[in-house]
């Protein structure tokens, strides 16, 4: 079995540490030092990268120099030795991995899915967050809406490993976007308790995101009403609703 644990970095990043027996991989190492500390005497077998932002790639060069390990990720990123594109499949930690292109936050953004004994693990960087989604720094609302839709189609029990501890802030917005959603209220209470205990709120699941993430709920009447109140057309389609929500969140 693969064990997956977060390595905290910076103020709110998580570098995901994957281990099976004596083999260790990390996802989106923005800083090398906490990875080296977490590994101790163990060797790093490889690195996965989802997109080019520095808080996800800043530690890659130092880790490669130290461990001489391969780097799997978008071809646009320095130090990537194994470029990945949409639809690529490979083996990692003795399980199958699939790549999905998810532009929006950046144009080169990918998500990586591991399939282990019927379980799915999704490493989605800054595309899908717990109760939120990434800002549109390079892509369009159409691209991000499509990317989120691809992830939302994964099995409901897929575990979602995003790269930031943004959950409480995202849930505050979700509560404004859908104020009568009882699932959001329950998630706020659960997330507050986890943070009070000093524990991460991640991983999430696709089902939990479908129930509480306004960016996956653009077709819900309550979410539409809030978006229309903030400038979306009465007959707006889901992409316009999404774009309105994202603009609202940017200034929330």
Topology:
Layout: E1 3-9, E2 13-20, E3 23-27, H1 32-39, E4 46-48, H2 54-57, H3 60-67, E5 71-73, E6 82-83, E7 89-92, E8 95-101, E9 110-116, E10 119-125, E11 128-129, E12 132-133, H4 141-152, E13 159-162, H5 167-177, H6 182-196, E14 204-205, H7 206-212, H8 221-229, H9 238-250
Parallel strand pairs: 3-4, 4-5, 5-6, 10-13
Antiparallel strand pairs: 1-2, 2-3, 7-8, 8-9, 9-10, 11-12, 13-14
Number of helices: 9
Radius of gyration, CA atoms, in whole angstroms: 18 Å
- Sheet bearing the most strands, described? 6 strands, mixed
What is the second-level CATH architecture? Answer: 4-Layer Sandwich
Name of the level-1 CATH class: Alpha Beta
CATH superfamily, please? Ribonuclease Z/Hydroxyacylglutathione hydrolase-like
Cα shape = globular
């Amino acid at each position: 079995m693969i064990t997956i644990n977060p390595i905290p970095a910076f103020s709110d990043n998580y570098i995901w540490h994957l281990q099976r027996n004596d083999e260790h991989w990390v996802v989106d190492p923005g800083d090398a030092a906490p990875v080296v500390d977490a590994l101790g005497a163990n060797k790093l077998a490889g690195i996965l990268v989802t997109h080019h932002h520095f808080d996800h790639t800043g530690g890659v060069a130092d880790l490669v120099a130290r461990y001489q390990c391969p780097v799997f990720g978008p071809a646009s990123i320095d130090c990537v030795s194994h470029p990945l594109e949409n639809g690529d499949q490979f083996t990692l930690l003795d399980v199958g991995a699939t790549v999905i292109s998810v532009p929006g936050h950046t144009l080169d953004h990918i998500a990586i899915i591991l399939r282990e004994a019927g379980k799915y693990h999704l490493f989605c960087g800054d595309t899908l967050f717990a109760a939120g989604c990434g800002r549109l720094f390079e892509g369009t609302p159409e691209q991000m809406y499509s990317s989120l839709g691809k992830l939302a189609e994964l099995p409901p029990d897929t575990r979602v490993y995003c790269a930031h501890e943004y959950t409480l802030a995202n849930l505050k917005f979700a509560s404004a976007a859908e104020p009568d959603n009882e699932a959001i209220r329950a998630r706020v209470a659960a997330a507050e308790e986890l943070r009070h205990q000093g524990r991460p709120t991640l991983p999430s699941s696709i089902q939990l995101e479908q129930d509480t993430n306004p960016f996956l709920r653009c077709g819900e009447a309550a979410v539409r009403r809030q978006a229309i109140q903030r400038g979306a057309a009465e007959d707006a389609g889901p992409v316009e609703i999404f774009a309105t929500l994202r603009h609202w969140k940017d200034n929330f």
